[in-house]
Write a structure and sequence with these properties.
Length: 114
């Protein structure tokens, strides 16, 4: 949705796309972008929940979106002082993004957390 549409309306639209009657890849991307929207609004707990729902509820949505959600969730966990959980998520993302554009970023992030 364009930025001219209010955050509340975008949140509702994205939440509607996470229902079980849609394909896993649509639900995964909708959850990821819902997390992005909530993180931008500084609603970190809700954003974390949205990001974690990608690997937790929609793991077949695609390895790139799953890994990207794990990396974003690790950022929030680090900011919340939950370093061990952040490391675990990045460790999960590293093999999933091997041979993709995210590979270097995931490895760098893992090294910075250790």
């Amino acid at each position: 949705a364009p930025a001219t549409i209010g955050a509340d309306e975008r949140r509702i639209a994205l939440a509607d796309l996470t229902t079980d009657n849609l394909p896993a890849d649509i639900r995964a991307y909708a959850s990821f972008y819902l997390g992005e929207l909530l993180a931008a609004e500084k609603q970190n707990a809700e954003a974390l929940e949205a990001f974690l729902s990608v690997p937790g509820l929609h793991p077949t949505g695609g390895r790139i979106v799953v890994a990207a959600a794990e990396l974003r969730a690790s950022d929030l966990l680090t900011a919340m002082g939950r370093r061990e959980e952040a490391v675990a998520l990045v460790q999960s993302a590293v093999p999933a993004v091997r041979d993709t554009v995210f590979a270097d970023e995931a490895v760098k992030r893992l090294e910075s957390l250790k």
